[in-house]
Specification:
- With 203 residues, the chain is an alpha+beta fold.
- Among the domains are: 2-34, no CATH class; 82-186, no CATH class.
- Helix content is 35%, strand content 13%.
- It has helices at 9-18, 52-103, 122-130; strands spanning 2-6, 28-32, 109-110, 152-153, 160-161, 170-173, 180-183, 197-198.
- The strands form three sheets. The chain has a four-stranded antiparallel beta sheet with strand order 3-6-7-8. It has a two-stranded parallel sheet with strand order 1-2. A two-stranded antiparallel sheet has the order 4-5.
- It is elongated, with a radius of gyration of 41 Å.
Length: 203
């Protein structure tokens, strides 16, 4: 048995003719291998390239979706920071009330509640409520507040309380009247006090 493999059916016929005298003794199995055209010459291919306009449209849609996502994430962060500041202002006010109940006076603070400055009374507030000059030192007097580490600026001594934006909480009290406590909510220039988070009702 002789197996002949060729890519041209004409060659098969010629070979069969050459072995014609042996047709009775030899059984031929002829196999032809079709020749396929190159891929780039295949006119029936369904592959279509994207046009420049289609690519620009896709890029534009992706950009819009990314902008919406980032904007929503920023709004969530701002809302979270505002909620945290409100809770911390309330905690400071409650601690001041506990301090007053024991000492018949509030901690003294002279920061102005009308301008954006480094609050002048915040270090004294920290010492009186925490009972020490720094959070890492054991208190030498009663501790009226257990602040979270993120609420305390520790790079200076005495330490002071900071809001979620990293700025010092404002504090003002003459010791007799209820204190004013506020966060500027990230504001660093004069004006925009309506965005502040305060212990007093805003009109």
């Amino acid at each position: 048995m002789i197996e002949i493999t060729t890519s041209n059916s004409t060659n098969v016929n010629e070979l069969l003719f050459a072995f014609g005298n042996f047709c009775d003794e030899v059984m031929f199995i002829a196999m032809t291998t079709p020749t396929l055209p190159p891929f780039h010459q295949n006119k029936n291919s369904s592959f279509d390239a994207f046009t420049l306009v289609e690519l620009l449209a896709v890029i534009t849609i992706i950009g819009i979706l990314a902008g919406l996502t980032l904007g929503a994430a920023g709004a969530v962060r701002r809302h979270g920071a505002t909620s945290t500041a409100k809770a911390e202002v309330a905690a400071l006010q409650a601690a001041c009330d506990r301090y007053y109940a024991d000492n018949s006076a509030y901690p003294i603070g002279t920061a102005s509640p009308t301008t954006v400055t480094a609050p002048a009374g915040s270090t004294n507030l920290f010492i009186n409520l925490v009972g020490s000059a720094t959070l890492s030192v054991a208190p030498t007097s009663k501790r009226y507040l257990e602040p979270k580490p993120a609420m305390v600026f520790t790079n200076t001594s005495p330490n002071y309380f900071i809001d979620p934006w990293g700025y010092a909480y404002g504090y003002n009290s003459d010791g007799t009247n209820a204190p004013l406590i506020w966060s500027t909510a990230g504001q660093t220039t004069a004006g925009g006090t309506n965005k502040w988070i305060t212990s007093w009702p805003k009109m």
